[in-house]
Amino acid sequence: MFEERTYKRCGCKGPLYHRRGKDKGKPVLNDDGTHKIGDLGTGCPDLEQKRNHGSWYYFLLIEDDTGEEAIRLRKGGFRTQDDAAKACKEVWDDYQAGLDVDTEEMFGAYLDRWADKKTDVALSTVAKYREHIRLHIAPYIGRIDRKKIRKRHIEQMFAAIQDRNVTVQAHREYVALLTQDCEDKRQAWRAASGQEGREILRASWHEARELLAIERKKMRRVTDVQTQHRIRATLSSALGDAVRAEEVKKNWAELVKLPKANPPKPMLWTPGRVRRWRETGEIPGRVMVWTPQFTGAFLDFVVNDDLFDLWHFMALRGPRRGEACALPWSEVDLDAMSVTISRQIVSIAYKLFGTTPKADSERILDLDSESARLFEKRAVLQVEQREKAGLAWQNTGLVFTQEDGSGYHPDFLTQRFKRLVELADLPPITLHGLRHGAACIAHASGSDPKEISEQLGHNTIKITMDTYTNVLPEAKKLRAEAALAIVPRSGRQAPTAPAEPEPATSTPGTGHVDIPAQASPPTPAPAPTAQPRPAGGGRLAALKRLREKKVASGV
């Protein structure tokens, strides 16, 4: 039964008097007989004489089902008696709703505890949860009592994030000015004549460079709207679990409104965009995708690269980088010309974890004849590498391996791909951009959105359509030209695919950039020497088939 008890007290100190018993009203004495001084509490005379003196408290005694005392709660600091009474009633209502009211756990501590027990999502998702908690949530609302977290606290957090964004952006612009100033001073030093003048300019450049280095270390990223939506999703997941565990009353994050987020859509590197990029270095979007012509140019360039078969597989079939790194020979069927995607490797703080693919991403990918031939070639190479390595061989069973049989780190593939794109002088895309390009190639070859969704391992076709809204219509034009070419007509010149710009050239010392009108494929890359050659776990069956083919052909 709820019984409201409120009282007023202060923090004043003074002579103490007995408040009850036979000595009521008599002074409290120390051992030496002097009057004891201490906290007056509710006995301060100013509490009755001065209206604003002290603050109000509540006391709540909660009994269990047997009528025995279970919890004693006391809380103060309220400005009015009504505020104390209202807070007391809220605690009682929370208790009646099944919440744990006898706890002082901070919200940040709860979030850490929640993340530790979050096992129903991918490891990479949990890592992102922890990042949001550490960088964004805990610094702002981590010190609030978990039971007291409310919608206003979350709104205040996002307002603070937005204020911080203004500061971060201003600092980034400042660093950009310092970068230009440093470069100007370097150019002035290089162009100067006279030893004394050059020394002065050189010292000025070094001073600017040191200041730039200091400020670059202070740089932070702007927390954009899309990231803010992810932070709110983390909070919503945590509070949703807390509601189900009866640790909070409501999922307050669901009630918080944020500006609409527009995820970046993939954009094709069309000839016009390429021309603009070569002139200014401007990249029109955050997610860029090659046309099939550029993909072909890249494959021609890396034909001698040790990982050519991997690039070819990713460019045409579009697996995620972690899925390609984790592909085992046991999931490769060269007779059926297919591979089964059933595993992936995720990188969290550069540590590798093996896990299943994303939701509904387990799938079978058909191989084209060229990919199948490259897989067979990889199997033969791994037999040779295994014999050469001897006892040092690591029998990982993976398809794409290094000289000792160990697998590749996904981050290595990302950096390696970036370097190859630079060497090929092709418009920049990320390694994940090859996956987007595979969707365009599939669409251009006649696959419908549902088939593309299945190929990429999307759990709904909506994801495919939302992601490739901008890209697929442009790729569709290639199919229109292909359809026109199929029908023979007299007196009509056969249509050709629009030429892609070839790498630009510049005249030294002029800054002039020449953009050829006709494309030409890049020169194939030489076999790299700085990167480890892939080796592998030998596939004797594939080697046997190759030998049988040679025997049958009389070679």
From TrEMBL:
<protein>
    <submittedName>
        <fullName>Site-specific integrase</fullName>
    </submittedName>
</protein>
<dbReference type="InterPro" id="IPR011010">
    <property type="entry name" value="DNA_brk_join_enz"/>
</dbReference>
<dbReference type="InterPro" id="IPR002104">
    <property type="entry name" value="Integrase_catalytic"/>
</dbReference>
<feature type="region of interest" description="Disordered">
    <location>
        <begin position="489"/>
        <end position="540"/>
    </location>
</feature>
<dbReference type="InterPro" id="IPR013762">
    <property type="entry name" value="Integrase-like_cat_sf"/>
</dbReference>
<dbReference type="GO" id="GO:0015074">
    <property type="term" value="P:DNA integration"/>
</dbReference>
<keyword id="KW-0229">DNA integration</keyword>
<keyword id="KW-0233">DNA recombination</keyword>
<keyword id="KW-0238">DNA-binding</keyword>
<dbReference type="Pfam" id="PF00589">
    <property type="entry name" value="Phage_integrase"/>
</dbReference>
<dbReference type="InterPro" id="IPR050090">
    <property type="entry name" value="Tyrosine_recombinase_XerCD"/>
</dbReference>
<feature type="domain" description="Tyr recombinase">
    <location>
        <begin position="285"/>
        <end position="483"/>
    </location>
</feature>
<dbReference type="InterPro" id="IPR010998">
    <property type="entry name" value="Integrase_recombinase_N"/>
</dbReference>
<feature type="compositionally biased region" description="Pro residues">
    <location>
        <begin position="519"/>
        <end position="531"/>
    </location>
</feature>
<dbReference type="GO" id="GO:0003677">
    <property type="term" value="F:DNA binding"/>
</dbReference>
<comment type="similarity">
    <text>Belongs to the 'phage' integrase family.</text>
</comment>
<dbReference type="Pfam" id="PF14659">
    <property type="entry name" value="Phage_int_SAM_3"/>
</dbReference>
<dbReference type="GO" id="GO:0006310">
    <property type="term" value="P:DNA recombination"/>
</dbReference>
<dbReference type="InterPro" id="IPR004107">
    <property type="entry name" value="Integrase_SAM-like_N"/>
</dbReference>
<feature type="compositionally biased region" description="Low complexity">
    <location>
        <begin position="494"/>
        <end position="518"/>
    </location>
</feature>
